[in-house]
Amino acid sequence: SSDLSATRAKIIAMAQFAEAEKAKGEGNAHFQAGKYVQALAAYTMAIELSETEEEDDGLDSLDGAKAKNPSLHIYYTNRAFCHLKMENYGSAVADGTKAIETKEDFPKGYYRRGAAYLALGRTKDAMKDFMSVCKLAPNDKDAREKLKHCQKQVQQEKFAKAIGCEKTKPLSQIIDVNTMIVDTSYAGPSYKTGACTAEFCKELMEHQKQEKTIARKFAYQIVMDMIELLKSSSTLVDIDVPEKGEITVCGDVHGQYYDLLNIWSLNGVPSEDNPYLFNGDFVDRGSFSVEVILILFAWKLAYPKHLHLARGNHETRNMNKLYGFEGEVTKKYDEELYQLFCEAFCLLPLCHVINKQVFVVHGGLFSKDDVSLDAIRAVNRDCEPPDEGLMTEMLWSDPQPGRGRVPSKRGVGVAFGQDVTENFLEKNGLKMVVRSHEMKEEGYEIEHSGKLVTVFSAPNYCDQMGNKGAFIRFDGKTMTPKYTSFASVPHPNVRAMQYANPMLGQLMGMA
What we know:
By secondary structure, this protein is α/β, with parallel strands linked by helices. It is about 45% helix and about 10% strand.
């Protein structure tokens, strides 16, 4: 009878494995069609069918081992690929690890995990994984290329660190813009330090709209004036909106200059009576990031108390190297201007509190309870974000529908539930959290029983998502949010991600 039971267990397992293969096939079809959410669900089904415990009738203790699906490692790497496409890099790392645990000589497991590490800027970890791929698949040219890229990057990072130790003065204190010459043929707007006006901003808006760049000297002056202005700012900025006034909060713009102009045509340009708060991720992905950041800096210089800017996770060197801003600045101007932007980004505030009621931050909340506004004020913002801590969580975290905290699918920050939001609001006498950082179909989404809202202002994100953008207006008297969704507008024929690191596209290789 034990033989019979073993045979029966085997038949059940084989039937489940056949179902798992069918689910994988469905996943592959969805993946080919670019339907990554559906593909993810199908691969998850294949994994669950392969790992499901049989009914507890003592069968799976036979011979001390349960039948194991010989394709399980493939399901994990397929799902990791989905996560890569959806930019859930933390989940891609986890699935790559599972694939390696299931079959440790499977090159694709290391490849997927290495790709996720690379996208997270964890170059040393990526280098180890691509080294493993090269050992297991010595003829894989693509993996050798990735390994070389990682080795080069690690060397550059070491070199930059060594230079950083020697060089004490920031670039903004070394460069002399007065020695820069504006070409006599230049017919665009002229910038004067200390005299930035609404008129200048409107001229710059129009000039850039025609795909013309402002003279190098003026671009430098704008960024250097911005650095000086931001030095007097703080990590948390309090904004007061008078009872009869209003303020508009916008989310990610991501280099979509023509959609930014559309926000101002729908809702008016910034002014003392029409203040704005832009909640981070001004640059990267969209191919007009230079235009976006220069016009936002110009308006900030014209109205320092009525145009507010917060840092997003993309106002960082790691992200700019991969997602296009570094490439775009060096193409349109030069490397030194990019370095000045990096200086300015490090001085941007990390969050704002409007009328002592609404906490506005790019990413989200924290991995521990009872974080006070004073603890946030004490955070040193003048740096690249560390691997963990309050700053990194403010830039990277996301809300989740459950309670408590779970690891972030992004691999950085934390996913926090409604109870975490409620604790933070109660602790600090606040009413609501506004954050950005995630695309939403309507441009905004209300979560955590109305205590948290996500606002995202880049419609048809990356020219392909078909989403709307949105902005929120709060009135000073009641601080009631009013939401406006808007569609994308046409832009010149320069595709999104035009300036992104080619390595990023290649990460999706080895399909």
